[in-house]
Amino acid sequence: MAHDLATDIIRKLEDAVAANALPEHTVELLRVSLEQARTAKAAGHDQEAVTIAGQALQAAESASGGQ
After folding, report:
1. Which among 60, 59, 34 is positioned nearest to 49, based on CA atoms?
2. What pLDDT shows up at residue 32?
3. pTM for this structure?
4. How far apart are CA 64 and CA 62, in angstroms?
5. Is residue 20 classed as helix, strand or coil in its secondary structure?
6. Measured at the alpha carbon of residue 49, what is the angle toward residues 34 and 57, in degrees to the nearest 5?
7. pLDDT tens, position by position, for the chain (67 residues)?
8. How far is CA 53 from CA 15, 26, in A?
9. Closest by alpha carbon to 57, among 16, 28, 22?
10. Rounded distance, CA 1 to CA 50, Å?
């Protein structure tokens, strides 16, 4: 189940980056977090991937005004 959660949250982060509806500096930070989350997942550290991607999504939500 953690595998599915990690995959789902990484996909949501990919969508947030692709939407490009945020300031460029925020999008760049999301890209860095996305790469870190992908790396953690590839290394078998699903919980770490979930944490990284989840925090990045929270930052994106804050930057977009909570929308």
Report:
1. 34
2. 97
3. 0.87
4. 5
5. coil
6. 55
7. 455 899 999 999 999 999 878 899 999 999 999 999 999 999 999 999 999 999 999 998 898 876 5
8. 12, 14
9. 16
10. 12
Q: What pLDDT score does 48 carry?
A: 97
pLDDT of amino acid 66: 61
If you write DSSP's letter for every residue of 23-61 in order, what string do you get? Answer: -HHHHHHHHHHHHHHHHHHHTT-HHHHHHHHHHHHHHHH
Burial 2-22 (b: 16+ CB within 10 A, else e): eeeebeebbeebbebbeeeeb
CA distance 36 to 29: 11
Burial of 33 (0-12, 13-18, 19+ CB in 10 A): buried
Contact 41, 6 (CB under 8 A): yes
